[in-house]
Design brief:
Elements lengths: L20 H30 L6 H24 L4 H26 L1 H13 L3 H12 L12
C-alpha cells in the first residue's frame, strides 16, 4: 500500500496539485517537441506550397511565416528544456532555411506581375530556347513595366 502523495518512483510531491521537477522537465521537453513538429510540418508544407503557381504561392508565404514563428518558439522551448545541442543547432539551421524560404516566396508574391508573366511564359515554352527567353524576361522584370524598353 502506498502512502498518499508518493509517486511511483518514490518521490514525494509537496502537495496534491504540484508537479515534481522531473514532471516539469518532461512537460517542457514535450512542449518543445510539439513545437518542433509544428515547425517541421509548416516548413515542409511551405516549401511545397511555394513551388505552386500564383495565387497559391500566397499560401506558401503564410505557411512560411507561420514556420518562422513556430521555429522561434521551438528554439526557445528547446533551449529552456535543455534539449541536446544538436537539436538546438538543427532548429537554428531550420530557422535560417525558413527565413530564406520566406524571403524568396515573399519576393515572388510582391512581384506578382513579373511572377505571373514568367509562369505564363514557362507554361507555353516548349523548347530550351523558349525557356531561356522566359528566364531572360524574368531577369529583365518583364511584366513589371521596367523590362519593356529593350525591345
Amino acid at each position: 500500500m502506498k502512502e498518499q502523495g508518493t509517486r511511483p518512483g518514490g518521490s514525494r510531491s509537496p502537495g496534491t496539485g504540484r508537479k515534481s521537477p522531473d514532471d516539469a522537465a518532461g512537460a517542457r521537453a514535450a512542449s518543445a517537441g510539439l513545437w518542433l513538429r509544428l515547425f517541421l510540418l509548416a516548413f515542409f508544407a511551405a516549401a511545397l506550397a511555394s513551388s505552386l503557381m500564383l495565387p497559391w504561392k500566397v499560401l506558401g508565404l503564410v505557411l512560411a511565416l507561420f514556420a518562422l514563428g513556430a521555429g522561434v518558439v521551438a528554439l526557445v522551448k528547446a533551449i529552456g528544456a535543455k534539449l541536446s545541442p544538436l537539436v538546438v543547432l538543427a532548429t537554428s539551421l531550420g530557422l535560417a532555411a525558413a527565413l530564406f524560404l520566406t524571403a524568396g516566396t515573399g519576393v515572388s508574391v510582391l512581384l506578382w506581375p513579373v511572377t505571373r508573366n514568367y509562369e505564363d511564359c514557362m507554361s507555353r515554352a516548349l523548347t530550351l530556347q523558349a525557356q531561356d527567353d522566359c528566364q531572360e524576361g524574368l531577369q529583365k522584370l518583364e511584366g513589371f513595366g521596367l523590362g519593356s524598353t529593350g525591345r
